[in-house]
Amino acid sequence: MEIQSIIDDDGNAEHTQQNFIIFDDSKGSLTEPGKLEVPPLSTAVKRLRGRDEDAMGVWMEGARAAECHLEWEAFKAAAGMVNFQLPVLITGTSINGIGFEAARVIAKYANLVIITGYSAERLKLSEETIKKEFPSANIRPLVLDLSSLAAVRRAAAEVNAYAEPIHILINNAAASGGPFELSVDGFELQMATDHIGPFLFTKLIAPKLLASATATFTPRVVFVASMTHAFGPGIDFSTVAHPDPAKYHPMGAYSQAKSANILMAIELSKRAHGKINAYSLHPGSIFTNITQKPGRRAALQEIGFLGADGQPNSEKTEWKTIPQGAATTVAAAFDTRIEDKSGAYLDDGTEANAKLAAHCADPENAEKLWTITEQIIGEPFTF
User: Fold this and answer.
1) What structural domains does the chain harbor?
2) What are the coiled-coil residue ranges (predicted)?
3) 248 has catalytic annotation
């Protein structure tokens, strides 16, 4: 089985978010709230559009397919895509993450890659590393702290002052797990960093995206999500604007944040009316920089995906390399074969809507989350 789980690229400091109740098949009952265990696959599948099939058959089928694609890395994915001579903005691009790998690959082809992160020093290191490999690459760093609405507005204003339009936005940044913590605006930090901040940022630079549209090109917005969206019961909408520490668990928070990414892609696609294509994706289980952050490492060890030494446990899940994980991001951004599949969820570079949990396949949930987030940021996101 694959699980990107708590292994996204970084986008902010060690942050996190909710009460996570899961089934334990060995006991045939619910575990106690807040107790973290590996969600049994048969539970995950029951959330897949109401299906009753054995989850092992569903999820392992995807894992076997992924195993057959272990050599399908980002550069190889890029080789099959159209001309990349387009300005691209990628959030969360620290070295040793899938955001950096995607930026590195795209920089070989794009005429401009805007890389973001909350640390100017780390951005400089990412830029220097890419340019060392590709001296002619046009890299532009942008400091972006997605956990702060004020910081998001400042960064968006900087983007909107650029001379160039933005053809593709890749919302890759994510916070790591850890103790319950609030953002400067009073939201749970993981939801703030993974969903609320990206929602506002996408909204504010939407004019830049729309300016790139032509008769033959539709701008794209990509959300790096995870199959762990299916490991929780869905989003507790009451806690998005009003977080409750009593309902918090790091992995439950992660599941909710990744669910929000998927729902946003679906609703953005619907509301854009063909003016912007949006996609979400699961890159796979990847051992990245964020995996070694204390809160995230502890959560992964608790469910057995990392051993006591902090290294990947291949007996528990299949693991991809960073280049393999970035391949689906590249495909979501550039593959013309999904042009007519806006709103789709991708896994291993292909549409995987059948793997969506029921709560992420429900258009009412997507609309509700959109409305709540508009209220949070204090302005509508319309086209």
Assistant:
1) 23-377 (3.40.50.720)
2) none
3) yes
